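Narrative of activities, Objective 1.

The group set out to show that a structural description can be obtained from nothing but a protein's sequence at a throughput compatible with the screening campaign. Below is one input-output pair from the validation batch, recorded exactly as produced.
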Amino acid sequence: MTSPDPDNRPDRQAARPQLSDSGGDPKGSPRGSPRGESGYSPPRPPRERMFNAPVASLLVAAAILASYWFQSRSADEMALIYSYGFRPADLDRGAYGGLFTHALLHGNWLHAGMNAVGALAFGAPVARLMTRPPAGVAGFFILFVLGAAFAALSYGLLHPGSEIPLVGASGGVFALIGASTRLLGRSWPAPLLSRQVISSLMVWTGLNLAIGLVGYAPGAEGARVAWEAHIAGLAFGAIMVTPLAWLFGQRIVRRRPPTRLI
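Output recorded for this entry:
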């Protein structure tokens, strides 16, 4: 007497899945995609971008690093710094170009890298605010450039006649920091005198005062840190973000729900 093969029973054959040539999944079902009883395969969720920084803040960070790359390959780097850095004595000579060009120069790669990271991190909420078409992004660059110029001007007024050049985009970066303190968890600037904004500004101001007292900051390599310019840029950004938001920001119009009069 022979016993029948249990795998040849009809009920076992009906339950055995058919394998495709591509790998161990049931025929007709792509690898890794679940199917329900109806045979429907849900679509895969869209991939999240690993890096989601706005283009404007990316451009500023890239410009900081690229400009220092060219500076570091200059035949006479100190001549470049004295020509395009900002010296407070330039104000007496009527030379104002350094108020803007000093932000393109840095002391070393660490100095440039810290400012690039700062522009990328704190510039993101500001860039997302300045999105009104067709040229809303201009507000972001205006805030950064004028913030750097105002910071250098303030430093020059506090150190009249000095021939020591000021370099670095920290003034513009702190303008972005000042603006971002009014955008924490918000799509429109918070009131300047609100508790949250004042607290954040006090923390940043205290940090810079501490740097001024200690006389050391990462990336300085013995050079004096222009903490006064940092505070000036911080104040500029915190104040000017509101008018720039009105000019270049994307306003959110809240519609009133429909009502009926009786």
